[in-house]
Fold this protein.
Amino acid sequence: MLSMSLCQQNLPLMKISYLKVLRDLTSDYTKNSMLVLSIAIGVFGIGCILGGYSVLSREMTTNYTSTLPASATIELDDSIPRSLVDRVKRLPVVKEADRRATLMARMYVNGRWYPLLLFVIDRFDDLRISTFHHLSGATEPALGTMLVERTALSMMEAKEGATLTVKTQPGGPKSVRIAGTVHDPALAPAWQEQAGYGYITLETLHWLGETQSFDQLKIQVASDGDSAPRITEQAQTVSAWLAKQGYKVGEIQVPPPNRHPHQSQMSSIMTIFIVFSYLILLLGSILVATSIATLMVKQVRQIGVMKTIGATSGQIAGLYLFMILILCTVALVIGIPLSRMAASVLYTRIANLLNLELTDTRIPAWVLLLQIATGLLIPLLVTAFPVIRGSRLPIRKALDNYGVSQSGQTGASWLAPLSSIRFLGETFLLSLRNVFRQRTRLAMTLGLLAAGGAMFMTALNVSSAWDTNLRRIYTQRLYDLDIRLTNPTQASEAIAQLTHLKGVRQIEVGYFAPASMARQGSFAVTHTYPDKGHGSFTIQALPVPTRLLNPTILEGQWLQNRTANEVVLNQLARKKEQKIGDSLILSIAGKPTAWRIIGFTEDVGSPATAYVSAEAFAKISPPTGRTTMLRIAFTNRDRTYAKPKINEIENRLEQAGIAVRSSVPVWLLHNAIAAHMKILVNSLLAMAILMALVGTLGLLSTMSMNVLERTREIGVMRAIGATPTRIHKLIMWEGLAIGGLSLTLGFIFSLLLSTYLGRFIGQMAFRTPLSLTISPLAFGIWVSIVGIGSYLATVYPARRANRLTTREALAYE
Amino acid sequence: MQHKPVIELIGVTKSFTLASGTFQALKQVSLSIPASQLIAITGKSGSGKSTLLNLITGIDKPTTGSITVNDVRIDKLSESALASWRGRNIGVVFQFFQLLPTLTILENVMLPMEFCDRYPKAERKNRALQLLEQVDIRDQANKFPAALSGGQQQRAAIARALANDPPIIVADEPTGNLDSQTASAIFQLFAKLAQAGKTVIVVTHEKEFSAWFKHTIAISDGVID
């Protein structure tokens, strides 16, 4: 026993009063370990999340800015000569400029064609803008070879030196050797995008059969490189200058400056975790507060004695605060190293998810300081009330303490009418009255359990809402496969290839094109990143009426008029100020066209999209009857059925000379989005389990305190004939009643919290709130946890109460 | 020889508010207690003797009247001032000993010196051991209270009451939980303390020990007889 060893030791430097605190702490290892654990969990959570977040946030910026990202990319319809780049560089608003081309080719891997994003680089040896880091092999790919982004190797199922079959739009398949590897932190991992990334020279591009040249002018602005509006303004100036020189500007792409494409998502997810971690720490602190209050009830006579022999209220409070400090310190000693280990796992995994190379894994000192400060301050603040109240107890009251205060009993008067309800039983009624005797403590316990329950149910509710929302992918998309073609193809020809295939129920054709919203008198601006995916905006031209799309209309109506220039925007494309009836200029292939907004939809799993009628669209774009988008519905929506069917369709199209740019089955889209958020949902569940644990510990603490205070009263009941079984029942009903009350409160809180969190996560993922979903499973599990927890929390106090003889109980002080 | 009163109560009333109404535990009590005496306060259960003791020790405050102890109007002192004053001026001995269970006997005796910051730190241990010697339990110094008999615990409690060398020792039914032989030994100890110049006030209802007291204050229904 530590208390004995402490006794034997000569501790001349330690104050006797502190020695008492240490011995009190070591006299109940189990209980104090629980307290330490509850604080340590919160400290651990905060350290793990903040540690991971701080490293990732810093590394994300370091990695991204190390590529010297372009402030803006100006797409021209013409090829850009090097002399033009040199002239642009001399413009006062431009710091650096380069020319580039990006195009989507295809690669043949394991019997399937996959998209291959090719970046055509002007000078590999003099990259000054939108760079990448060389890892291995050649630094400049020779003709017929390419450098590959490191994450694309697994997608290509190839190694450096291997050859890959690559096909561009006009050319036939060619074998391209992988000459080296690079790391491009500005790109999402290839496996995440289900695409390959290659870096080639213009010569190799032409060797592949392409005729295009450099058509992207990448610039870094001379000043205010952190401000998107200023960058846009300066890019507009350059575009106007280019137009004056006779060049035709397509669009200006201004991605959020110095922000990795996934930066805001990561910040949002981390914010949720940080909030939950703080809530766990707060709950743990409430648990410590209730336990310290228990201890003070147990030691109320000792407090009276200490005051009698000369201790002031301040000295008494100091002793108990010292006790809390020790608990917190032990919790910090346990929580901090574990949190750092967990943080390293977290940032390593997320860095992998984000294609980051961690250059510096040091967790900043402020994380440690914050952990220490909150791990000490929050428990101290929460416990300050019971400690101060206990230490200020008048000596007479402390010395006369015979158990539960009489003053707390008045609150039970409103329960008096219950006496007339016979079926409730005397024991239950007495238990119910006991519940309300210590109302402050009851409020604390209820708060702890209700908060734990609310967060537990919220985690499962949000998870359920997420699943429900994601399932809307299937109800909004009545097709099973979305195929994008490389070239506009005669619709009837494409349909003819597929219509008689077994299992194909319906085919719908349409057109898609990258677009941007333009303003009169200025060049169209998008926020698209160089990967052409993040921040992109697409126009989809669909047949009216469309049979394979079931959009959720938020406002206005769906497309009805085949020929009118009417547009429906989804929530990602909609701007705050836009309303029904507004006119909108959409720039498609550099050509501005006016449209009238007739509706707004809420899509799940789509990028920013404007929906228009195919006939109306044909007036401005490809010749009527041509298509770039096929949507196919199968007779069976099952994934196992669809998988071989997709290969069959792709092969049929390829054989017919119809180049497929991409094919995305709906189930793959569903799974990809689900997988993206799985880490969030699983983490919420892990937090929920911790909540349940801390909540149950709180109930155990309260029940122990309630029974301890009434030891003498229980002795009286035993003396007048109450059997141990009846005493047990009395205590058990009390625990269950508290549990039952907390359930009601927890459920109400969970509705509020689920709504808020669902809104937050939905906005972050889909730009639309998740609808409130009540998970019966969550409620059922929490009822079981509270029921079993409440029962178990009463077993020990009841056993303790019954273990004392009636004489001991009556003599209990 | 007539000693100067060390404790003086004038017109002291103490009332408690209960659910059934106001209860007067002490009614217009005036008394003087001389120094260096062994004095008994006797009375039946509920007569007001413990209330009187609580007022003398500053544990409770009077509803009306004044209490002067060693020339200090303790009814006027604040709670914190009272705590410090009590630690230095009054040693309290309880019926159930009330030693702190997680401290050894030696540490229990040293604790009041620490709270009141009396005696240099280096001297406290020796003083505590001397006091334990004085009450004949020095050999028990490093034991926890639970390992001692009732009589030994009460001796330890007396040593603790003497820790800060207070002029007044107050004991509330100090022998109520002890056998008669041990009780006699405790009264002998109190008598010695009185002879040494301490004022020892003992609340008791055990008449067989009345021979030990020079003065007895009998109280019934809140009034001194």
Summary: The mean pLDDT of chain B is 87. Chain B touches chain A at residues 19, 54, 57, 59-60, 79-80, 83-84, 86-88, 91-92, 94, 96, 98, 100, 102-104, 107, 110-112, 114-116, 125, 142, 144, 160-161, 163-164 (CB under 8 Å).
